[in-house]
Design a protein that fits this description.
This protein is mainly alpha-helical and 138 residues long. Helices cover 50% and strands 0% of the residues. The protein is built from 6 helices and no strands. Helix 2 crosses helix 5 (88-112). The mean pLDDT is 86.
Length: 138
């Protein structure tokens, strides 16, 4: 885990699919040193989250395809326990990556004066990642 965390922190850019659009905004800014206000600043009148005057769409395109959608409730306790045991390191690495991306997005806001974190649907993000031990509890 320590080696993976060290590698994570050495990377110039990382993104997470749970924050796909903000991750792309960060990527663009880090490598181009320009900020896409219409696409990335939630307060911009033409930002895709502004239903009244939106003229942009989210950056990128991503579709997840599964043969059959499953929820944790569909699985037996034994299978969930096995999955948790096999993904302990993954969960810790994901939690660190998510925190790192959020910190870099906050720095992006400081540098540009833009509002990026405001665009995040925090309830949805928490709901989708609540299974990660310790992520939301300090």
């Amino acid at each position: 885990l320590e080696e993976a965390l060290a590698t994570l922190h050495r990377m110039e850019w990382i993104g997470v699919t749970d924050l796909f659009h903000p991750s792309l905004c960060l990527l663009h800014y880090q490598f181009n040193q320009t900020f896409l206000a219409e696409d990335c600043d939630c307060r911009h009148p033409r930002h895709h989250t502004n239903n009244d005057h939106a003229t942009t769409k989210p950056l990128g395109y991503w579709v997840e395809i599964r043969s059959q959608k499953r929820t944790v409730e569909d699985l037996s306790v034994e299978v969930v326990d096995l999955m948790d045991a096999h993904t302990t390191v993954d969960s810790k690495l994901f939690a660190a990556a998510l925190r790192l991306v959020l910190g870099r997005l906050r720095r992006l806001e400081e540098l540009t004066g833009a509002s990026v974190l405001e665009c995040i649907d925090w309830q949805k993000l928490k709901r989708k990642t609540d299974y990660v031990p310790g992520l939301w509890s300090g």
